[in-house]
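Troubleshooting: if your tokenizer reports a length mismatch, compare your output against this known-good record of 243 residues.
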Amino acid sequence: MPSSITQKPFLNIPETVSDEAQQFLRTLTDPALAPSLPEPGDLASWKKVQTFAETQALGQSEVIVKRYAPAVTEGTLAGISVLDVRPKGWKDNGKLAVYTHGGAHTMYSVKSMLGRTAIFADDTGLRVISVDYTLAPFAKYNQMSDEVIAVINAVLREGHRLQDIVIYGDSSGGGLAAAVILKMRDQGMGLPAATVLVSPWVDVTRTGDTEFTLAHAEPNYLYDKHSKKAADAYDFNPYRTAT
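Known-good structure output:
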């Protein structure tokens, strides 16, 4: 006999947002039903996850890129793949941004995150160098930050000055951007003119108060099934002795 009990939605859909936004929110799948991310040493499974996420994000990014229509050039700096993104009407004033994309340190690329780069470039008028750093678990936190710093050094060798550079990162890319400027400081490189951290993932250990007090407001991230797996992949040492 069918149940008459209505299933409570996993996500609160506010009536104050547009009808289009409400409709989109209703299409989202309860993350509790999603499978757990792989263990950090399961490289084959991580590759499958990354391929799936990349394919999904490319389609979403394409719509944004078409709207903002930046000039995009693929290249390498210090052996690291980058995208050179310039907004419509860009004029060279010697200033630029270095972008570190998000994705829980384990997903996406400069191509699938090009939409976010395009928006930032358009809003600021800046040329943006988006860094395609190696994802975890195929690289760890120290290698990722080294790759970003290598790109910044290459930009400096081209004649740019640190005081004309802003480092911009969102989500896990915001955490990476913070790690980069701390390493730059420790290495005596100096600091950029500014660092923009958009909703940065800076505590991968889940010790902050809001991880718990606001858990109901962000059902899309389940720490044990998702975030912790990504954090372990980001900082996993198979030779570390368990304590």
